[in-house]
Amino acid sequence: MNARRRPKRDLASFAGLLLIGAVVVAAQLVEGGPLRALLQPTAALVVFGGTAAALLLSFPLPLLVRASHAVSSVFRVTSEPDPALVTRFEQYAVRVLRKGVIALEPEINVAEDPFLRRALGMVADGVESAELRQSLTTFSHAREDGDDECALVLETAAGYAPTLGILGAVLGLIRVMENLATPAGVGAGIAVAFVATVYGVGVANLILLPLASRLRAVSRAAALTRELIIEGAVILQRRVHPRIVEAYLGGYVRARTSERVTAA
């Protein structure tokens, strides 16, 4: 029995990325500008290279690596408590009621969710409910703080990128001013200079900030799932009758459903 559904690709996230690129390209073409005008290696070096350098100075390298890995979660369907998880705890409760908490040991190795494995293991080891709740809650909060740090990295990068875009534009204008003796190239030079601003503002508002918001949404959904698992583990430890497990845990599913309806 799988502990949770395997993550699926979030087609909406991929569509969003494609739409961002399509909007920028369409805006350039509508004005009659060539696409090659948006491809400026120097501007890219200042904005993207400068942002990377600023992040290296702002955060420890392990956190930056963890943030880069967390971004991949944006392209998976957001995890959330579902009826299948509640049903699973009902099945766990049946086994515990018949054979005791030792009956959960075979389920520990089968569970795909590390947090669920941890919870089942503590129940099978006979940890008291108060200690069980405290330990799992502490771990969940630590995980949530770690997820928040990853979103903070992206938000910080979104703050650096526009400023570096302006810096790139100023550097480009300085070069233009140094070559005022050739007026024919002034217009083109100014256009090239402001591409850096486009890079900075665009990547901050169209990519980095949306990714940070999505990471926080994924983190909130995962935290709600962990809360359900914590309550389920306490229920198993207390040997609550399987028939009333849904009454304890169903509220998490209904709360998530209400959020989706409200958002719609």
Overall description:
The model is unreliable at 1-5 and 260-264 (pLDDT under 50). The chain has one domain (39-67, 79-259). Helix 2 runs antiparallel to helix 7, helix 4 runs parallel beside helix 8 (186-238) and helix 6 (114-124) packs parallel to helix 8. It has 264 residues and is an all-alpha fold. The longest helix has 53 residues, at 186-238. Helices cover 78% and strands 0% of the residues. It has helices at residues 11-30, 41-58, 61-71, 83-99, 105-110, 114-124, 129-178, 186-238, 245-263. It is elongated, with a radius of gyration of 26 Å.
* Total individual domains: 1
H/E series, N to C? HHHHHHHHH
Q: Which word captures the global form?
A: elongated
**Low-confidence runs:** 1-5, 260-264
Q: Which class best fits the helix and strand makeup?
A: mainly alpha
In whole angstroms, how far apart are the ends?
A: 33 Å
Please report the total strand number as a whole number.
Answer: 0
The largest pleated sheet is described as: none
Strand content: under 5%
